[in-house]
Design a protein that fits this description.
The complex is a heterotrimer of chains A (about 220), B (about 220) and C (about 260).
Chain A: H1 5-10, H2 12-16, H3 19-44, H4 50-62, H5 66-79, H6 86-111, H7 115-123, H8 128-158, H9 170-181, H10 185-212
Chain B: H1 3-11, H2 14-41, H3 44-59, H4 62-72, H5 82-108, H6 111-119, H7 124-154, H8 166-176, H9 180-209
Helix pairs in contact in B: 1-8, 1-9, 2-3, 2-5, 2-7, 3-5, 4-5, 5-7, 6-7, 7-9, 8-9
Chain C: H1 2-19, E1 23-34, E2 37-48, E3 52-56, H2 63-70, E4 78-83, E5 86-87, H3 95-100, E6 102-105, H4 117-127, H5 133-146, H6 162-175, E7 180-184, H7 192-207, E8 211-215, H8 219-225, E9 228-233, E10 236-241, H9 243-248, H10 253-263
Helix pairs in contact in C: 4-5, 4-6, 5-6, 6-7
Classes of the chains: A mainly alpha (about 220), B mainly alpha (about 220), C alpha/beta (about 260).
The structure holds adenosine-5'-triphosphate and magnesium ion.
């Protein structure tokens, strides 16, 4: 069976049907991962009993495949009677997986703020929370902008994982076309091209945004 | 089926996981070093070409690319085995990411190192081989370790292109036994046993090769 | 002290004149631009075999650029440079061979941090001269002894003081048995108490008859060791004279000004 270019072009609109969900899942997962990652890092810094537990959790998240984590949520939650739409399970899964990495981004970003800054704030009488919110966090933002941007693209590239739990995103649409037409070469190829374009456009937008906000460059 | 039996059943796929990881590394390491070095030294069109190649592998989604290579390449007359597709896609993806730290490590070396080598009468290749690369590769070991973890975890995806790795075995067991908690906890545990020690190693290396003497913010 | 030095001086001058016919380094009308900025302006300078030349001048005057042209770490844009009989051209073949005859010592030492002191010294012997390991080690130990640091051979550069590192760098260059040694401010990055140990090694080297071109502001060293002192400013050679004349009675106002600044 050889490659049918006309057929490939013809199915582009059908594969594109899933792009809305791809983008939606990407954005929501990025927000979820950032919030969870920040939570992990704050817990890690809270007290010395919580710290090793959260540390193990973060390392465990980073030591198991995203695919397996998503399977776990998808098959185990219903066992306990929690039945959620697949797309929600997928967003939770991706948020959870990437939160392990993003917590490390926050950690490095905070550690890159000189120790003297928090020492000065604490000695002025600010409590730990205010010190984080008003002194460390604003400086940290510069340090984390670039790696967070990179992870936002990483999450977008991971959204096709959700096809395995039948979320109708772009790879899922490609599979639908494939099973309707009994041809795999063209739908997969088109999905590959579209995801590559999407990632390049997203990388361009993220880069532009970071430059606009003046978040790049002067961190060191 | 008891939990132990399930885990043993999953581990029957460990050989495929190991095989894909091994061949993946065979793609990843040479590609990382070669691409990083070439990107560092080339100029003009050559640099543009090598950068485009690296960016292709960094910008594509591994799972999508696995399907593309597995299903679409045969239509162009390129027949690859599933193991070859898995190892190549996962390996070159990890290699492309690592190549960026090879290049960064080469760029961050003091220019005096190269000059001192040249002044001693070593040719440019000898300077690269004996002076620059040993120092650059040392700096990059943490990155390589982290990319190796990505590669091992990535092998779970080859279950989607019919390879009977650990993840595939778990799904197989799930078809005959309804015990999702045990099966998927067991599967998580199997990956954790392999990757967790490597993660700790990577963390340790990052700390020990990182900037020493810089104090950690005490919050 | 004075008479002794004058005596040595006369000997050296005779030797230099005799040796003039076979110049170690020949620089003719060399110019060099960085973009639109001219770093060297038609510099001409000959260095005889066995001659000790000191180059001084204000920061940015092109001293480093000039001696880096001698082993082509910088390429010149105009003029001719001949080093022990071979004319240097950008991208020439056999440049590595020429460089093996020209040792260089840098301000920042540039030791290889991933190699022990001994391996720093043997690297080029083994990889460029293809000398077997044992023989290379032997040569290296000999040179390390000469700079009084043989007992540190197994250590790594970061375990040594600045002065020790710079002496290792000198030994490393000497291992290649160079015909000419270039020094680019070898003591400027050192703590004051370490300057002497490096200058002593350089002085000993000079007394053994090594051809040396030294960029340095160590005027004591220049007086004692140099056959000729060259003063550079804005990419050109302004004055060149024997040390006695140079320090005692310089001709140019720029030189006088510069020397006055050095003394203060
Ligand atoms: N790679 C370069 N690119 C651009 N300009 C350069 C470069 N190297 C040197 N220059 C310029 O050329 C001029 C001469 O530099 P050079 O290093 O030779 O001076 P120098 O006499 O050795 O000074 P110093 O005493 O500070 O070492 C300086 O103005 C310097 O800024
Ligand atoms: Mg200089």
């Amino acid at each position: 069976m050889s490659f049918d270019l006309a057929f490939a072009v013809e199915i582009i609109p059908r594969v594109l049907e899933g792009i809305g969900n791809t983008i939606l899942v990407g954005i929501l997962s990025f927000i979820g991962a950032t919030l969870l990652g920040f939570l992990w890092e704050m817990l890690r810094r809270s007290n010395r009993w919580v710290r090793p537990i959260v540390q193990f959790l973060v390392d465990a998240i980073r030591s198991t495949p995203a695919l397996v984590q998503i399977y776990f949520l998808f098959f185990v939650l219903p066992y306990y009677g929690v039945v959620l739409p697949a797309i929600l399970v997928g967003i939770f899964g991706l948020s959870f997986y990437y939160s392990g990495y993003i917590s490390e981004v926050f950690k490095a970003g905070i550690e890159a703020v000189p120790a003297g800054q928090s020492e000065a704030a604490l000695s002025l009488g600010l409590n730990r929370w205010d010190t984080v919110m008003y002194v460390v966090a604003p400086q940290m933002l510069r340090n984390i902008a670039a790696p967070l941007g990179a992870y936002s693209i990483g999450i977008l590239k991971s959204t096709p994982l959700l096809a395995v739990i039948a979320v109708p995103e772009m790879l899922g649409s490609a599979f639908d076309v494939a099973s309707d037409t009994y041809r795999y070469a063209e739908p997969m190829f088109i999905a590959g091209v579209l995801f590559l374009l999407l990632a390049l456009i997203a990388a361009f937008l993220v880069g532009t945004l970071e430059r606009r906000l003046g978040l790049l460059g002067t961190s060191h | 089926m008891s939990f132990i039996e399930i885990v043993l059943g999953i581990l029957q796929g460990a050989d495929v996981t190991a095989e894909v990881t091994f061949f993946g590394l065979l793609y990843a390491v040479p590609f990382a070093v070669l691409a990083g070095v070439l990107q560092h030294f080339s100029t003009g069109a050559a640099r543009w070409a090598i950068t485009a190649l690296i960016e292709f592998w960094r910008s594509t989604s591994v799972i999508v690319l696995l399907y593309v290579f597995y299903y679409s390449l045969p239509a162009f007359g390129i027949e690859l085995s599933a193991v070859a597709v898995g190892a190549m896609v996962l390996g070159l993806n990890a290699g492309a990411y690592s190549s960026q730290s090879v290049r960064a490590a080469l760029q961050s070396l003091d220019r005096g190192q190269c000059e001192a080598g040249l002044a001693l009468g070593l040719n440019r290749f000898a300077v690269l081989r004996w002076i620059e690369l040993p120092q650059a590769l040392r700096k990059m070991i943490p990155t390589f370790v982290n990319e190796a973890i990505q590669l091992i975890k990535g092998t779970a995806l080859v279950s989607l292109i019919t390879l009977t790795d650990m993840t595939f075995r778990a799904k197989q067991i799930a078809q005959s036994t309804y015990d999702p908690v045990a099966i998927y906890s067991g599967l998580l545990l199997c990956y954790l046993m392999v990757c967790y020690p490597v993660t700790l190693l990577g963390r340790h290396l990052e700390r020990s090769t990182g900037k020493l003497g810089e104090r950690v913010n005490e919050l | 002290m004075e008479p002794e030095r004058t005596e040595r001086r006369t000997l050296v001058v005779e030797f230099t004149q005799k040796a003039d016919s076979r110049a170690a380094v020949l620089i003719e009308g060399v110019s060099k631009w960085f973009g639109t900025f001219q770093a060297l302006d038609k510099v001409s300078l000959n260095v005889a075999v066995g001659e000790r030349l000191v180059i001084c001048g204000p920061s940015g005057s092109g001293k480093s650029t000039l001696i880096r042209c001698v082993n082509q770490l910088e390429t010149h844009d105009e003029g001719r440079i001949v080093v022990s009989g071979a004319e240097l051209r950008p991208g020439m073949r056999g440049l590595a061979e020429v460089r093996r005859d020209v040792g260089m010592v840098f301000q920042q030492f540039n030791l290889f941090p991933h190699l022990s002191v001994l391996d720093n010294c043997t690297l080029a012997l083994r990889r460029a001269r293809k000398i077997p390991k044992d023989a290379a080690n032997q040569i290296a130990m000999e040179k390390l002894e000469r700079v009084h640091i043989a007992e540190q051979a197994k250590k790594y550069p970061r375990q040594l003081s600045g002065g020790q590192q710079q002496r290792v760098a000198i030994a490393r260059a000497l291992c290649m048995k160079p015909k000419i040694m270039l020094f680019d401010e070898p003591t400027s990055a050192l703590d004051p108490e370490m300057v002497k140990e490096v200058l002593d090694v350089m002085t000993a080297l000079a007394k053994e008859g090594m051809t040396m071109i030294c960029v340095t502001h160590e005027m004591g060293f220049a007086r004692e060791v140099a056959d000729r002192v060259v003063f550079m400013d804005k990419g050109a050679i302004i004055e060149e004279a024997a040390p006695q004349k140079f320090f005692g009675n310089p001709e140019h106002d720029r030189t006088k000004q510069f020397l006055k600044q050095l003394l203060h």
